Every structure is written in C-alpha cells, then in structure tokens.
Amino acid sequence: MPKGREAAAPHDLPAPYLLFLGDVTEAGFAKTAFGLRDWAADRCIGEHALPAATVTTGLRRLTPREAAEAGARAMLIGVANQGGVIPPAWMPELIAAIDAGLDLIAGMHTRLSDIAPLREAAERRGTRLHDVRVPPPGLPVATGRRRSGRRLLTVGTDCALGKKYTALAIARGLSARGIDATFRASGQTGIMIAGAGIAMDAVVADFAAGAAELLSPDAAPDHLDVIEGQGSLFHPAYAGVSLALLHGSQPDMVVVCHQPGRDRVLGAPGFAVPPIEAVIEQTIMLGRLTNPDIRCVGISLNTDGLSPQDVERVTAETGERLHLPAADPMRGGPSFERLLDACRG
C-alpha cells in the first residue's frame, strides 16, 4: 500500500450510550438513534428526550443521571436534523448529561467543541466531547489508481431510503457465509455503528474522492469492502457527494436501493424519483471513469409499511423487470440469499 493510503482511523467512542432524541417529531430525523438501536443494541442503554418529542426508539426512558448510574458512559445525539444544528432548547439537557459525568457524542454539522457552554462544562466536569463528523487531517487528492481487493457500493434512487442498512446487512450476511467482508462507513450513523469511517459530506470538495479512496484502501484479492452510499446522483443537493464517493470507491459492484411508492425526491419535491433503470445507467456510465468493469448486481428494496403480499409482488416484479436479484435485506429470506449470492462477485 502506498505511503499515506491507510484506512480511516477508528473513533474512540465510549459505550454504552444514552440515545438523545431532542424534540424530534418525525422519525426520519431520528435515523441515527434508530440505526444505533438496530445495529448496535448492545451499546444502547436507553433513550432521553425533551417533553416535545413524539418519536421513540422503544428503549427505556432514562434521565442522564439515571443512565450514568446504570452504567452509561456517554449521551449520543441520535438526531440528524436539517442543517445538522444543535438548537438552544437542547442545551440544558446536554449540560445535564455532562454534569452527570457523561461524555457527549454527535455527528452534527455544528460541532460540540465549538459551543462554548458545552466546552466549558466538559472541562469543568472532566468529560469529553466527541464530534464524529470531522474528517481526518491530511486527506489526499484522489489519484484514480486501481487498488487491490474488491468493492461493493450501495447507491440510491434518492437519499434516506436504506443504503446504510443495505450495506450493513450485506456485509453481515457475507461474513456469516465465511467471506472476508468489511462494512465501510461514510456517514455519521455508520461511523457510530462501525467505530470508524469518514463522514463524506463534511469533506472539502477537492478531497472528497481522495477521502473515498482512503476509506477503502488496498486489500487482499479476495477481500470485499461493502461501502455505505450517500445521497443520490439524481438529488439536486447531494449528487456531488454521491459522485465523489462513486469515483473514489471505484466499486466493482453496485446495489441500487429504492423505496417503492416514493415518487418525489426527499427535500426537493419539485424533482421526481428516477426509475431504477436510470440510476443503473447513470451509475455505470459515471463509475467507468475509475473502474471500467463496474456492474450492477442487484436491487435492495425498502418495503417498510407494505403488506406481505405487496412485498412479494413488488420484489418479484422488480427482479423480473430488471433481470437482477431483488430483496428487502431487513426481511431476509430466499430473495435476500439470492442477492447475497450475486454480491459475492
């Protein structure tokens, strides 16, 4: 491996966590908390929220002091709100967590360490502030050099529809089969689950593809990195992050993620969600810049809210139309096993 091209350094995050839900009233803005609950349940001791919150992870409700007494080491902000801000209304609860002896963990665009009252409270109490959405120093400009090992990237027809869950499920499923597969996190929640990674949307544009190269370095020929996708090539706000990740990760395989029934782009209702066929075509065309052999190997469907009959129908119709294995990884079953077969490369 060339000097300076090492995998992203791990984040030292003290567990177990108390998940903080702030004043969230829409489940989509609490995706970080749900991600930790679903993929790192052994590190989650409970949840805490303001009275205005209507969303719950189903974990037991604890105050910061109760959580500390139960063994929690940190309160983790489980919110991914628009703009990644920390509202003033949260401050009393965040300071209460520090006063209870808990570290704070966040992946917001607003950094905990930049907020003077939190910084001063942590210094006074001897606790730490952990900002995971901080890129590592010295990120390189991308070279486009082909790297050893194999790579799979999840891409989407839109943002926030299952690229992280799909990558986690594929990596776990392949590992259970004895395949050397590693999940590579490219967003705040994935980093908190995996304990390592690079938040791609916090990287300066000139270094974004280079960060993706760093995220998935040279590896053994039979090793597979399963890389968490970000945004969508068809999203007017986030396509730039998606393209940098595609070029830098230079995947051999992609799995397209889609939510049946979603027809408008999240956060940009003036734009229609593209058909899966368009995403495959665009991804392959653009991805060939750094990997001429890129190919789509399957479709991941987010069927949350559909009846079992509709799930079976949509899965079968999608697979037959595209001549690719289609499955909802969170439901498992024979269709997901066929998708895993395709992801072996």
Account of the protein in words:
Helices cover about 35% and strands about 15% of the residues. It has helices spanning about 30-40, 65-70, 90-100, 115-125, 165-175, 190-195, 205-215, 240-250, 275-285, 310-320, 335-345; strands at about 15-20, 45-50, 75, 105, 130, 150-155, 180-185, 225, 255-260, 265, 270, 295-300, 325. The longest helix has 15 residues, at about 310-320. With about 350 residues, the chain is an alpha/beta fold. Helix 1 runs parallel beside helix 6 (about 190-195), helix 3 runs parallel beside helix 4 (about 115-125) and helix 7 (about 205-215) packs across helix 8. The protein has 11 helices and 13 strands. Residues about 1-5 have low confidence and may be disordered. Strands 7-8-6-9-12-13 form a 6-stranded parallel sheet, sandwiched between helices. It has a 5-stranded parallel sheet with strand order 2-1-3-4-5, sandwiched between helices.
